[in-house]
Design a protein that fits this description.
Order of helices and strands: HHEHEHEHEHEHEEH
CATH class: Alpha Beta
CATH architecture: 3-Layer(aba) Sandwich
Distance between the termini: 31 Å
Number of helices: 8
CATH topology: Rossmann fold
Oligomer: single chain
Number of strands: 7
Helix content: 25-40%
Number of domains: 1
Length: about 240
């Protein structure tokens, strides 16, 4: 995975992301828009290119920066499709009529969101899902289960994997699920991919294993309410 992440990062010099910014931030001076591309935009574009991703789902449009960056990695407009979800209407307004990006004002972790993916792609089997919505253990886990497991993504990308205790616990769980050989915090390649500020938020990439793979090793002791039920449900599948 380190080799794959390195190749993705090395592609950054080939992309012109001028004019693709984050927009209004959720932190610090919220009145000052970020107009320059974040470094991880270049990494995302590189990852889309080297993995040959064409069917892409994004959880958390915000103001469209990451979706536009990923679209730059497609060989030509319309060569792939990016479905992006946010509960705010900015994305659906911005991307109306876009040849590659379909934006929905919708919670991705709902039946409506799932139905949009099936309608657009026809069947489960997506190439990449980028999850950058609510940075909360359960919300992000649901996105992983819906789009990583049920929609059978080849790659799962997660922003802010060390932002807070809940995200750290989720990353620990996913490392157990997919195995250390299939996961990486891309900042291990270059910390500037997800530029640290007061904290180092991290940027996770997972190469998904086949759907029938067993959960590896012992479950992490995450001490989260509801997790024992989830463990029982998932482990029961192993004995069928």
């Amino acid at each position: 995975m380190k080799e794959l992440a390195g190749r993705a990062w090395n592609e950054r010099e080939t992309f012109d992301l001028s004019g693709i910014g984050y927009g209004q931030p959720h932190w610090g001076n919220t009145n000052q828009a970020v107009v320059a591309p974040h470094p991880y935009y270049f990494f995302l574009a590189g990852l889309v290119r080297i993995t040959g991703s064409r069917k892409i789902v994004e959880v958390g449009t915000h103001q469209g920066g990451s979706a536009r960056a990923m679209a730059k990695a497609l060989p030509q407009p319309g060569a792939g499709k990016i479905l992006t979800f946010d509960i705010t209407p900015y994305g659906s307004q911005m991307f109306a009529g876009h040849p590659t990006i379909r934006a929905y004002t919708c919670d991705a972790n709902t039946e409506a969101g799932f139905n949009h993916v099936i309608e657009q792609f026809g069947e489960p089997g997506i190439d990449l899902v980028f999850i950058d919505g609510m940075h909360d253990f359960w919300f992000t886990l649901m996105s992983v289960l819906i789009y990583g497991e049920i929609c059978a993504a080849r790659y799962i990308v997660l922003d802010d994997i060390s932002l807070n205790p809940g995200m750290e616990k989720l990353w620990q769980l996913l490392r157990s699920r997919y195995g250390s050989k299939n996961v990486i915090n891309a900042t291990e390649v270059d910390e500037t991919i997800r530029r640290p500020g007061i904290i180092a938020p991290g940027f996770g990439v997972i190469r998904c294993v086949p759907a029938d793979n067993k959960w590896g090793g012992k479950w992490p002791d995450l001490n989260l309410r509801g997790l024992p039920f989830l463990k029982r449900r998932l482990n029961s599948r192993r004995t069928r």
